[in-house]
Design brief:
Helix content is about 30%, strand content about 10%. By secondary structure, the protein is of the alpha+beta class.
């Protein structure tokens, strides 16, 4: 019996599928040694994560290390879904949680460069609902307005309502702000409650970046997810990055062992709230492209997202000396928090290392980083031209351990 010839569309689809499966997010070094890494020591790095999987500290992980614009190490270990015994893949999709914040901040800075957003302006200039905001349950007047810059560096006076137990935190929890029907409604609810602090006086991890996402909507006239897709992830070819997972990619969604560390909307459906503070999903490869753009001074593969001076502004120390940083999250983050004892501070969207000493983890002055409550972590080290992205899902209690291990395991493998 003769077999019919496959139709051209089927052949094309198969070819595209194979090409996508083997596509690399960045150029690959012929040998790790070509970019200053030891192949032998990278095996030690790989072994650390295999041990984490075996001890059930992690279900699995993907680690991508790039230097001088080329991948030195890109591997997956363990399980994408341990319960289903699904192996982890290099293109597995993760909730990056607070690693959404740098993407949101880049989106806002695009508008600043187009003269559509004034970083120094009061937030109320774009969101009138903040015009009459008060401070504390006693309703004290603000000493100065909350600015867009405050949103970017977490000095807005806002809170998350998750990490403290003040009367204002309790108001946030009672309001259940993330259950709003839209980002606009969520921000209106936030503006109806008092600030936890006077603007500019405390570094307080908060819904600031979610409010910043709403500012982007108002300043651009576009839904936040559309703006991010058209101006950031699309141009950077971050094809697996967004606020929900495409139906054809659901099989690549990584799952934690047990319950997640935070409540999230269904990743397979378009969310009601486009959370610029924690709602994005991505892959290690996609996020490495974003990081490489930052390291390159705002451009990747001939596509310019931001100007070099804008990147320099974002990666500079943005916290005045009188800002109190010893807040619950600032202290809980330890060497990853923006506290002077660790030689770290905060820029626009991420933490900045400002001193060579005091921090127990390796790095360089000027490196910038952030992580997600799900277990994800990235950092960019301009001095060594390094990009590192960890995609993992671990318990909240293990975050600092896994993040610290990642810093150590990456730098121990460098030879120059």
């Amino acid at each position: 019996m003769l077999r019919s010839k496959p139709k051209l569309p089927v052949l094309l689809a198969a070819a595209l599928c194979c090409a996508g499966a083997f596509a690399q997010p960045l150029p690959v070094a012929a040998h790790p040694e070509d970019v200053g890494f030891s192949s032998k020591r990278l095996e030690t790095t790989r072994g650390a994560y295999k041990a984490d999987v075996d001890s059930k500290r992690l279900p699995g992980a993907v680690l991508l290390i790039a230097r001088n614009g080329k991948i030195a190490f890109y591997d997956s270990v363990g399980y994408q879904d341990r319960a289903a015994q699904t192996p982890m893949k290099k293109d597995s999709i993760f909730r990056v949680a607070s690693m959404s914040k740098p993407i949101t901040t880049v989106a806002a800075m695009i508008l600043a460069e187009e003269n559509k957003l004034d970083v120094s302006a009061p937030v109320a200039q774009y969101l009138p609902e903040f015009r009459n905001v008060k401070v504390g349950p006693e309703g004290a007047p603000p000493k100065r307005p909350m600015t867009v810059q405050d949103l970017m560096r977490h000095t807005s006076g806002l809170t998350y309502g998750l990490f403290g137990n003040s009367p204002v935190d309790q108001m946030y929890r009672k309001a259940n702000v993330f259950a709003a029907p839209s980002l606009a409604e969520m921000v209106k609810t936030i503006a109806s409650m008092p600030l936890l602090h006077q603007p500019g006086e405390f570094w307080e991890y908060s819904v600031s970046t979610d409010v910043l996402g709403r500012v982007v909507e108002v300043a651009s006239g576009m839904d936040f997810d559309t703006f991010v897709r058209e101006r950031v992830t699309g141009p950077l070819k971050m094809n697996d990055t967004g606020f929900w997972v495409k139906p054809e990619a659901v099989s690549r969604l990584a799952k934690p062992d047990g319950q997640p560390n935070a409540a999230f909307e269904d990743a397979t459906k378009k969310p009601n709230v486009f959370s610029g503070g924690g709602g994005i999903l991505s892959t290690a490869g996609d996020y490495a492209r974003f990081c490489q753009m930052l390291l390159n001074g705002g451009q990747l593969e001939g596509v310019r997202i931001l100007a070099p001076k804008t990147i320099a502004l974002m990666t500079s120390d943005q916290l005045p000396a009188n800002v109190e940083r010893h807040t619950p999250v600032g202290m809980a983050l330890g060497p990853f928090g923006p506290v002077p004892e660790m030689g770290t501070s905060f820029g626009l969207g991420f933490a900045i290392r400002v001193d060579a000493g005091r921090n127990p983890l390796p790095g360089s002055v000027g490196d910038f980083s952030w992580g997600g409550i799900t277990g994800t972590l990235f950092w960019v080290d301009p001095q060594t031209k390094l990009v590192a992205v960890l995609m993992a899902q671990t318990t909240q209690a293990m975050l600092g351990v896994i993040w610290g291990q990642t810093r150590t395991m990456v730098y121990q493998a460098m030879t120059n």
